[in-house]
Write a structure and sequence with these properties.
By secondary structure, the chain is α+β, with helices and mostly antiparallel strands. Helix content is 23%, strand content 34%. The protein is built from 3 helices and 7 strands, in the order E-E-E-E-H-E-E-E-H-H. The mean pLDDT is 95.
């Protein structure tokens, strides 16, 4: 098992039927808001990674059938301040997008080492608050994904 993170991750947009979006504030970068994200671990499927990350970062327990795999990836350069977690030659990450619909806004249990705070926001407002272009774009695409 490598001591480095894999440059493969998931992004999970958690939402209610009326498109309230859950955002988490990063502990290492106050003011940086995002959806659930996390790196794939050895031996995990992407769906298993998404289920695990949702539980770890929010306390929400969702079965694999509750998540929608968008079959969409984003490739982006890893921020320099976070590159130390990856092998020296790794500069880019491949992110796989999922969403999770839940019935209503609810309190969440944050992973204190990862996040400082959370908030539920209307989808357009949530998109504007995200620091990541891929997270913003996924939130803006969500209404169209739900119509399918």
């Amino acid at each position: 098992m490598s001591p480095h993170k894999r440059p493969v991750s998931v992004l999970v947009v958690i939402h209610t039927p009326d498109l309230q979006i859950l955002l988490l504030e990063r502990a290492t970068r106050a003011g940086f808001w995002q959806s659930v994200t996390g790196s794939q671990e050895d031996g995990e499927s992407l769906l298993e990674t998404a289920v695990r990350e949702v539980a770890e970062e929010t306390g929400i327990i969702a079965g694999p059938d509750a998540l929608l795999d968008w079959q969409m990836t984003n490739t982006f350069e890893i921020f320099a301040e976070w590159r130390y977690r990856f092998a020296p030659e790794v500069t880019h990450n491949i992110e796989h997008v999922f969403s999770l619909g839940i019935p209503t806004v609810q309190p969440v249990r944050l992973a204190a080492d990862e996040h400082l705070n959370y908030q539920w926001l209307p989808w357009r407002e949530a998109a504007d608050k995200c620091f990541s272009w891929s997270n913003r774009d996924a939130i803006l695409m969500l209404p169209g994904k739900l119509l399918r």
